[in-house]
Amino acid sequence: MAAEGNAESHKLLTEENVRAALESDQGPDATLLSWRIRNFTQKGDNYACFVTSVEERFRLGGEERFRLGGEERFRLGGGEERSASYVAKLNPRRVNEALNEMMAKLFYREGTVFTKVVPAMNRILARIGCPPIAVAKCFFCSLAKGEEVLILEDLRPRGFKMWDRRRGIDAPHARLVLQELGRFHAASLLLESELPDKDLLRTYSLGDHFMSSDAAKKLFGGMVSAQLEATARILEEIPKYERVCQWLHETKDESLNMFTEMLDPANYKPPFFVLNHGDCWNNNLLFRYDDSGAPVQVMLVDLQVARKVSPALDLNYFLYSSFNGPERQQNLGQFLKVYHDSFSRVMSAGGFEELFGIDQLRDEFRAKMLFGCISGMMIMPLVLSEEKDVPDFDVKSDEDMEQYKEERQKVLLEMSKREDGLLKPRLLDMLDEMMEFGIIS
Predict the structure, then answer these.
(1) 91-132, pLDDT tens digit by residue?
(2) How far is residue 141's CA from residue 139's CA, in Å, rounded to a whole number?
């Protein structure tokens, strides 16, 4: 499902919606002169939708409208000619129907969060003197089934760029992310407190999870099982991990049920019940740096799987997908405090007393470590993939799934033996923690 050049997806970008995005950004006086698509992502940068950019030339002002022969016409005057760039997220138009069904739900969720939920959060944050949520602005959203398009602010001209995902997040970058997650989670509670029915999921129709269909469960169940089985194959060659291998073999066929059960809002209640980002890992984070190279600001991207669950799911997903073990282990207590302080500041500014203490947060984090473990085994190989390792998720049949499983096992075994030595130590550090805390027994 990696996003490469896609002529079918390109067709979804029309002059009409490009012009609509421009006018939403620059105002009604902006006149589109020309536009073109410029692909900028690489294989492995995106796994759900097709992402590209749109470069536009436009004139701001200087358009004079008049009527001639009963028809409205216009001429360009002396307005200033300018350029703009936007990021477009497009339906990849997969062959697999389960993926197409899932894609419609992902686009609905992201479009709704960008155009309704985040703006509502930001109005509350502005009222209480807090900065807005750090996400790109959305200038155009079309959710017609099979033709979904989002046109977003291009953050690159403002200096934002992706951290080298294969290096592992370090503490300065992590603090920025955890602060923003805390603000995002808290803002969702402030918003919900002001909704007439006090129910964010019902108000914005976000209750239907993208893996709720039987076809999607079958597809992703096979993929998750393949990943756990491949991890077990890696560990079979390492002494003292027999217990982990046994656990993986016993768990792999039930892993998706375990995973989706932790995504069910019915299993949560306050105070640990907030809107999560849902997919917070290296690929979905952009950073801006000062002149010394230190990170000073983060932007959260890809809100396709935003969901209302425990904040510990976002924390586990982030900390077990995107870190080298020592960085996480040495800073875990501090990381949780950074998150807790940020969450609490926003809640206090909104007039709420502390909902949970740092010790309660630590207990909740540990209680949800199984989610971090399964997520880590799924995401780590993607984080560390070279272009040749990126999987093709467009599985169409049972035979394709068996071939997919065989290929993933082969790729992961090769990755675990490479001279760069990145995958194996990350996996072992995570699994050691899972044994230490009794998640694997």
Answers:
(1) 987 767 777 788 889 999 999 999 999 999 999 999 999 999
(2) 7
161-436: CATH number: 3.90.1200
Q: What DSSP string describes 197-216? A: TS-HHHHTT--S-TT-SHHH
The answer, yes or no, to whether residue 60 has pLDDT greater than 50, is: yes
Q: How far apart are CA 134 and CA 120, in angstroms?
A: 14
Give which of 127, 275, 310 is closest to 189, Cα–Cα: 275
Whose structure tokens read 């029915």? 197
pTM: 0.92
CATH 3.90.1200 in the chain: give the residue spans: 161-436
CA gap 6, 363 in Å, rounded: 45
Q: Under 8 Å CB-to-CB from 171, ≥6 apart: which residues?
A: 327, 331, 334, 335
Q: What percent of the chain has pLDDT over 90?
A: 68
Element (H, E) at 307: strand 307-309
Q: How far apart are CA 381 and CA 297, in angstroms?
A: 27
User: Which two tokens mark 435?
Assistant: 């044994």
How far apart, in whole angstroms, are the C-alpha atoms of residue 143 and residue 131?
Answer: 29
> Tokens for 153?
């602010």
The CA-atom distances, in angstroms, between 166 and each of 124, 380, 426 are 37, 9, 11
Write out the E strands in 101-143: 138-142
pLDDT at 125: 98
pLDDT confidence tier of residue 5, bands split at 50, 70 and 90: very low
Mean of pLDDT values over 290-318: 97
Gap between the Cα atoms of 423 and 411, Å rounded: 11
Task: Determine the average pLDDT of the residues in 416-428.
Answer: 89
Q: Which two tokens stand for residue 62?
A: 């200087």
Residue 67: count of CB within 10 angstroms of its CB? 8
Hey, is 438 helix, strand or coil? Answer: coil
Q: Which of 107, 270, 267, 259 is nearest to 186 (CA)?
A: 270
**Cα–Cα distance for residue pair 217/215, rounded to 1 Å:** 5
pLDDT tens, position by position, 364-401: 999 999 999 999 999 999 899 888 887 776 666 777 88
